[in-house]
Amino acid sequence: MRIAIASLALTVALVGCGSSNDTEQEAVNPLARAVSATQAESTARMTFTTDGEVAGQSIKGNGSGIVQFKPPKAQLNLKMSAAGQEISIDEVMDGTTMYMKLPKEAMAGVPGGKSWIKLDLDKASGGAISGAMNASQDPASQLKLLSALAGAKEVGKEKIGGEQTTHYHGELDYNQVAKSGPQELRKAAELALKVMANTTIPVDVWIDDSSRVRQQRLELNTKAVAGSPAQKQTMTIGYSDFGVDASAIQAPSDSDAYDATAETAKAMEDIK
User: Fold this and answer.
1) Residue 154's beta-bridge partner residues?
2) Integer Cα distance of 87 and 89 in angstroms
3) Number of other CB atoms surrounding residue 246 within 10 Å
4) Residue 178: its pLDDT value, please?
5) Helices 183-195 & 128-136, crossing angle to 10 degrees?
6) Do the strands 257-259 and 116-120 form a parallel or antiparallel pair, or are they unpaired?
7) Residues 179, 181, 182, 187: what is their CA dihedral angle, to the nearest 10 degrees?
8) For each successive 10 residues of the chain (272 residues), what is the average pLDDT?
9) pTM for this entry
10) Which class is 2-260 in CATH?
């Protein structure tokens, strides 16, 4: 889960990036404009699906909720199934802090009988996540990375959720970002290189006629690191109902949350 979150945060930061070649810029610039247009809507409903394999076992999941782009917040309910078992997870994001509520049996060993697990992703990643999130809100930073999304091309026109969209495909090159990307993104790229099985990942983005991101799909393959098994996941994130009321997003009280940041940071430090 930690690995996937770090990778997703970096990918969101770079989704509007592409090649520095003038011809390719014409194809990629709509992606950068789409990130800006999407965030200008302030909020949206979000859907999430994942289909993959962990330790040789199939794992599937889906969820929905509300996301606020600035300042970043989200509230989601996820349902995951693996090895014939299904679990429901409630998740709240408040800036770079994530709160997770798992089924009671999974929370049984949490000290103090807390209902939630708290994880400051920025502290756990040594500052990598905040850099990526800050850059994701800055279209200028994204345009500096026009060499990061290699060979981005228009695939065609498709309907997503009843809306006409344009489908783009490219590859995100973590190695290139770590070496020559904006300074605020290099830590996140270096972290990704430690855990990802490949230095590049396929990225697909669907943009509607109002230049807003309607859907993005990522293919993530991670190595077996820090006691976590290798994972293969295809994640699809959808956005709709832009401008929806997000006032219900509330982080749980810290008094009811076990802070797992320090032990997670230690596990991340142990990744070679």
Assistant:
1) 168
2) 7
3) 18
4) 84
5) 120
6) parallel
7) -50
8) 41 39 46 79 92 88 91 90 87 90 84 88 69 46 44 89 92 83 74 82 90 89 77 90 94 92 76 56
9) 0.79
10) mainly beta
- The three-class DSSP label of residue 135 is helix
Helix-strand-coil split of the chain, %, nearest 5: 30, 40, 30
Which residue in 70, 191, 52 sits closest to 122, CA to CA?
Answer: 191
Would you state the pLDDT for residue 99?
93
Distances (CA, A) of 13 to 138, 180, 185: 9, 15, 8
**Is residue 150 within 8 Å of 173, Cβ to Cβ?**
yes
Sheet-wide strand order for 97-101: 149-160, 163-173, 200-208, 213-222, 231-240, 43-54, 57-68, 73-82, 85-94, 97-101, 116-120, 257-259
Domain ranges of the chain: 2-260
- The token pair at 128 is 């990598």
C-beta atoms surrounding 79 within 10 Å: 13
